[in-house]
Amino acid sequence: MRHFFHKGVATILLFLSGCYGKISGTLPPPQQLSQQQNFCVGAAKVDITPIPGIAMGGYSIVGTTGRGYWTRLYARTIYFRDTKGHSFAMVSCDLWSVSGGLADRIAELVKKHGKPLAREQIILAATHTHHSPGNFSTSPMYNEFASYRKGFDNNLFDFFAQRIAQSIVQAIESSKPATVSFSQKKIPALVRNRSLDAFLLNVDRNAILSKNAQLTIEKN
């Protein structure tokens, strides 16, 4: 029985190994810019909505095909450069995930545009929206199971890489002198516990509320 199980697992892994895109390229090394007088910040937003007809990601075999759009998908970038020449970009993508291969390709494209950001200077995050498509991951498992269609769509992968890189490039080019400040304010009822009834069943609920009233502010 154990031998059969191991053989089955090996077969599945071998099958999945052909379900991802093999991406080749060269990642740029980190680069520190020259010192400057001002702290600079830039921002950009680029539309990354694909054309209709692509399988949506996240619901596996019960998923469906995108027939249009409700709201557009975007890549939003904020670029920072301090007075000592250290720089980095933070990117929020309206996708269900950002794979390592996609991140590598984006860094390579940013370098090709002549912008001095290495892979480790680009922070990419996904909003995890299921209104985005599947089949662009460099993970074989996700290309097999994330949407009802199987396999890797190289055109979709390149589309996202180009658009997200464009967002980073535009943020760098739009950077201007800026200041950084911190402030805090209490906003009652801004958020709520999704299961308030369940939370109130905790014996130590009052102690939890008292102890964590300012947790969000203190951790930022």
From TrEMBL:
Required cofactor names: Zn(2+)
Signal peptide location: none
An annotated GO cellular component: extracellular region
Pfam assignment, any one: Ceramidase_alk
Keyword Metal-binding tagged: yes
Domain Neutral/alkaline non-lysosomal ceramidase N-terminal: 39-204
PROSITE patterns named in the record: PROKAR_LIPOPROTEIN
GO BP terms, alphabetized: ceramide catabolic process; long-chain fatty acid biosynthetic process; sphingosine biosynthetic process
GO molecular function: metal ion binding; N-acylsphingosine amidohydrolase activity
UniProt keyword terms in alphabetical order: Metal-binding, Zinc
Cofactor note (record): Binds 1 zinc ion per subunit.
Name the record gives this protein: Neutral ceramidase
Domain of life where this protein originates: Bacteria
Amino acids binding Zn(2+): H128
Taxonomic lineage of the native organism: Bacteria, Pseudomonadati, Planctomycetota, Candidatus Uabimicrobiia, Candidatus Uabimicrobiales
